[in-house]
Every structure is written in structure tokens, then in C-alpha cells.
Design goal:
By secondary structure, the chain is α+β, with helices and mostly antiparallel strands. It folds into two domains: 9-259, Jelly Rolls, CATH 2.60.120; 288-338, no CATH class. Helix content is 26%, strand content 12%. The protein has eleven helices and twelve strands. The protein has helices at 9-18, 29-36, 39-43, 68-71, 73-83, 108-111, 164-172, 251-259, 282-286, 289-302, 318-327, and strands at residues 20-23, 57-59, 65-67, 96-98, 101-104, 141-146, 158-160, 196-198, 206-210, 215-216, 226-229, 232-233. The radius of gyration is 20 Å and the shape is globular. Bound molecules: fe (ii) ion (FE2). This is Phytanoyl-CoA dioxygenase.
Length: 343
């Protein structure tokens, strides 16, 4: 039986009904501030001059991390209860929260233009590093850690609440598994959906989304810095959609059963091997490391500090990079490109 000591009955019902949950104020301010203090240095933009903001949305690499259990204790408690208990969590993969920010700065164009969310091109469920099945546990929860206040129209993630059912149906009808790209047809139903929402939140909040809740990057019409990180919760085993005791179903499992209008799914079995891949998006993020490190080191030196005070895994030696790679599914070895020098 799943025990609930943190989530209230209202919060549990909200997750079941909407496929997501806000855990307000769940990242201590000192953790937000610690990683946010050099975000503009890393970006290389002038915070007061939007003409220097040459990119709209930026996926940044990870320099530092901390066990999620320590980084955001309340969000961690919520994660554990949503998946049915801490013992179901993978203790390495995705157990750490880091500063791989996703920055949304908007553009001048979007200041006075709008878009119908149904027509946005980038609807997706997360997970470029595994083959998706109805019961996949690799990305059981999609986590949005909020580092800046997100105002209405301020670049918050869009979700499609009534699109979750269609994702579950698609995966149920494809026990051979699927990728998560649009050409799979997995998102074709979204243009007929109606329950769209753009998140707003406060710095320090955490939003926990079900793996099968479709979402996309929202437009930032305000040109006010919006920073989130988007880690995941990974389970040791796939979800179990055919439990002997119904009280053992996690809330994540119950969302799927509800979406398919079934009390259990004894007939569902993955019919091909579960596969994990090298994350597609790592290469693009990593391409920014050299520039970020140079700016971080030069900023430290300009402030009269030693470069040893710059906090980045890439300046801490081979062993630190190996650990980073294991935690992030990048293999156990240091890649030649990861040995970075800053002049
Ligand atoms: Fe996403």
C-alpha cells in the first residue's frame, strides 16, 4: 500500500485529474541564488540590454549538481509519493538536480504577437534517451524547477491536459514502443484538444508533470528573463499496470489507468526490448561549455578571485567528470572533448 505523509488528498486528486502538481516554495532560496548568481555571465548577455540577447530559448549545460533530496526536500517528498515510494527511485540516474538551465528570453516579435497553442510545432513528451512504452519508468515524472518568477505570458511551459489521454492510448496501441518525435504520430490528436494552459510560478517552485502529459515551450511575450531546469525522475523498474492489490498502484500508474478507463491492464506487455540511448540534446548543450567556462573564469579573475573558485565540474578533474557522466547517462568514461582548457 502506498503511504502518503506529504501530499494532501487534494494534491493527489489534482495530479490524478490534471496530470501535474505544483509544489510551491520547494527549492530553498539559497539554492536558487547560488546557481542564478552567474547566469548572465554564463549567457554572455547584458541583462539590461535586450539587443544583446541573440537567442530566444537557450538549453544550457550542467556545471554543478546536488542530490535532489537535499536540493529541494519537499519536492523530493512529493516525487517519492507520486511514484509510490522512495524505494522505487533510481539512486543514480536523475537523482541529482543541476544548473542545466533552460532560459527563455522571448523576442521583439513576440512582444505584440500571439499564437494559438494548438498550432505550436513543438508539442512533445520528454525522453530522447529511451524507447517509450506505456509503462516506461525512465522519465516517470517531468520536473520543472523554477528559478525566476514566471508571469502570465512570460515564457512558462504550455501543457495540454486533455492530450494526456491520447498519449496513453497511442502507447497502449503500440506495445512495440515508440520514439518521441512528432513523425511518430503521437501528437496528432493535440489539434483537437481544448484544455491548454501556460504555467505561471514563483522562483523556488517545483512543478511535477506526469510522463505522458504533452507540453511545449511557451512564448515569452514579456522579454523578462525566465529560467527553469527540467530534470526527470527515473525509476529502477517500469511502472506496474497490473498489481494484485489496487492500493499498491502509484499515482503515476493511476493516471494511466484512468486515461484508458481500465481498472488494470493485465493484457499490456512491451513486445520489444527496452532501450536506452545517448541523450540527443547533450551535444547541443555541451557546445556551450567552452564559452561559458571562459566567461566564468574571466569574470572571477576580473573580480580578483582565483580560477579555482569557479564552480564547474569541467574544472574539477577527470574523476568529477566521470561521476557527472554516469549521473547523466553519458557513459562512464571522460570524452576527449570534455577535457577543456581555458586560456
Ligand atoms: Fe519537454
Amino acid at each position: 500500500m502506498v503511504e502518503y505523509k506529504f501530499l494532501t488528498p487534494e494534491q493527489r486528486e489534482h495530479f490524478l485529474e490534471h496530470g501535474w502538481l505544483l509544489v510551491p516554495g520547494s527549492i530553498p532560496k539559497e539554492h536558487v541564488d547560488q546557481w542564478m548568481k552567474d547566469v548572465w555571465t554564463r549567457l554572455g548577455y547584458n541583462p539590461t540590454d535586450p539587443s544583446t540577447w541573440t537567442e530566444e530559448t537557450i538549453w544550457m549545460p550542467r556545471h554543478r549538481d546536488m542530490l535532489t533530496k537535499e536540493f529541494s526536500p519537499d519536492a523530493y517528498k512529493a516525487m517519492c509519493e507520486l511514484v509510490g515510494g522512495e524505494d522505487r527511485l533510481d539512486r543514480v540516474r536523475n537523482a541529482y538536480s543541476g544548473d542545466q538551465f533552460i532560459v527563455n528570453l522571448g523576442t521583439e516579435y513576440w512582444k505584440d504577437h500571439d499564437i494559438d497553442p494548438r498550432t505550436m510545432p513543438a508539442w512533445h513528451i520528454d525522453g530522447d534517451w529511451y524507447r517509450h512504452f506505456l509503462d516506461s519508468g525512465e522519465g516517470a515524472l517531468v520536473v520543472i524547477q523554477v528559478y525566476t518568477d514566471i508571469l502570465p505570458r512570460g515564457g512558462g511551459t504550455y501543457i495540454c491536459e486533455d492530450g494526456l489521454e491520447g498519449i496513453c492510448k497511442f502507447l497502449y496501441e503500440h506495445p512495440e514502443g515508440s520514439g518521441n518525435k512528432p513523425e511518430t504520430g503521437m501528437y496528432d490528436h493535440i489539434k483537437k484538444c481544448a484544455a491548454f494552459k501556460q504555467f505561471t510560478a514563483k522562483a523556488g517552485d517545483t512543478i511535477l508533470m506526469h510522463a505522458h502529459l504533452p507540453h511545449c515551450t511557451g512564448k515569452n511575450h514579456l522579454r523578462k528573463l525566465r529560467v527553469i531546469a527540467n530534470p526527470h525522475v527515473t525509476l529502477k523498474e517500469p511502472l506496474n499496470l497490473n498489481r494484485a492489490n489496487p492500493e499498491d498502484y502509484s499515482l503515476c500508474e493511476q493516471v494511466i489507468l484512468r486515461a484508458l478507463h481500465k481498472p488494470s491492464l493485465p493484457e499490456y506487455h512491451a513486445t520489444t526490448a527496452r532501450e536506452r540511448y545517448y541523450p540527443r540534446n547533450y551535444v547541443a548543450k555541451f557546445s556551450r561549455v567552452q564559452g561559458e567556462l571562459e566567461r566564468m573564469v574571466h569574470a572571477a579573475e576580473a573580480a580578483g578571485k582565483s580560477r579555482d573558485e569557479v564552480d564547474s565540474v569541467y574544472l574539477k578533474g577527470e574523476e568529477a567528470i566521470k561521476v557527472h557522466n554516469v549521473r547523466n547517462g553519458l557513459g562512464g568514461e571522460v570524452q576527449a572533448s570534455q577535457r577543456i582548457t581555458v586560456a
